Structure prediction request, 620 residues.
Amino acid sequence: MEDVKSGGSDGALVEARGVSFAYAEGGPEVVRGASLAVGRGRLAALVGANGSGKSTLVRLLAGLLKPADGEVLFGGVPLAAIEPRVRARRVAYVPQTVSTVFPFTALEVVLTGRSPYTTRFRFESARDVEAARAALRAVDAAHLESRPVTELSGGERQMVALARALAQEPECLLLDEPSAALDLKHRAGLIRHLRRLRDEQGMTALIITHDLMLLDPAFDSVFAMRRGAITAAGAPAEVLREDVLAGIYGDEHVRARRAFGHTFVWSEL
Amino acid sequence: MEGARELAINQKSKVANQKSVVAGARLRRALVLLALVLVASTLVALWVGYQRLDLLALRTDERARVIFFELRLPRVVLAGVVGASLGLVGAALQALFRNPLAEPLTLGVSGGGALGASVAIAFGMGARVGGLPVVFVAAFLGACASVVVVYRLARTGATVLPGALLLAGVVVNTVAAAGVVILQYFADYSRALQILRWMIGSLDVVGFDLVWRMLLFLVPGWLVLLAMTRDLHLLAVDEETAQSLGVNVRRSERLVYVASSLIVGVTVAVGGTIGFVGLIVPHAVRLLFGEDVRVVMPCSFVLGAAFLMLADALARTSFGAGELPVGAITALAGGPVFLWLLRRQQRYTAM
Prediction:
């Protein structure tokens, strides 16, 4: 696969060039020569079958893993050359959930998103607390502020994880299946919120999702992964075609239809 | 029922304590409060003993002065130093391993240190080589070895399995204890007795010399851990997130291992295995002042000092002229706390 550009007038903000990665040395390559580029201010989705390497690719883009081969660029600069705390002010990574066993309050978790802005021996200021509260409000989770995260539901934890990322005030969000634990309303709410961030603040976001129904009107571009490589990329309408989807998921029962301004995708039972 | 009520009370106190959501303000307030507790504990620990402190006698009686300045005062200071160390290390290990049951004893760090120290004692290396007490170094190496073994066994990829961590700690402790027993068996009588005496954990020292020598090793360890409270706070919340926020996870882990092993090794070499201080103290701090690791660590340091001073005062006085090893008292207090936490933790995470 050659470089797949999604366009975008400012050029790519997040870019992978032929990256490969294996968790164990000499082990199977989970990501194999994957290339993608997300333009500044674009909302992009990463789809693919289970185990196709999506989460690993996003971790590589977030700088959590170092590619064995190839290069990850952020704003045209090699990600590896950016100091980690500077990186944290520009890119925020949202894991599938907040995993702590200690009953930190939701506000405490969100406040950790402010740490790239404070020095080692300084605590957050009142202004940081305000920023964290604003982030919680932005995801409709202000009421969770003083609740211990260990007592929250999966979906609520997910919103807290997202608020923490927003508190970082990044240019780019990388989200690993943010909608997995969310109900119907919050799924759509999440996408609406990301669109608002894009439109109002020029936020760039790349989201792993299995929610193909939400892609068509909402996203600017879709990348599809199969066996560690990007095999299809383009506007949602270009990727959400039966022949393309059959290839991505290895499933000939996939159906796609356009109606009410959405593309509906399902697999025949 | 009991647990539910405790939890409710707990939450109420937590809400009350988090009126100030700015962690810095909370830490300042907590430290002022704990400083008062520390002063009070120090006075009590100095006051009680086989002979009550008599200020008048101290001025006139040479014998009373010797008892106070060369026996009681160094011992109280030593208890404070060891308690502070264990409280701090316990809080750091809990954050690093994201496990509320972690502490030097349960992770096998104390056991490894004890084995290292026993080797040195059994081979008669109580002396110093080039000014370095061999027992300290041997205990440090033993503690280092066990923390690495336990951690390697419990870690799979990005997660540390909480059950495996504690099991590995138990096994390392058992193996180390067997090693100590074998050493005792083969060592000559006086050395065997020496090993036995500090194995249970006791703080009887004479003079300040040993305390100064310990501080030479402990202070760097304390400073490293206290400098890492922010990274440990982020790690306690979530490892991957911490990394994405700019924490160098591998480097932080290595620094905490080395600093903790150094601190635990030296305290074990002097006072033996004093268990559960690193468990009780950080949890008491959490209940009082919230979960923020940047608050929990310094507060555990201060409260640990106060706690062990009082435990040692109890050990000195509970049996008239005789005395209990302080390790027995902390274990009696800590065992039930461990079990209570174990039960509570099982509700949060399916181990």
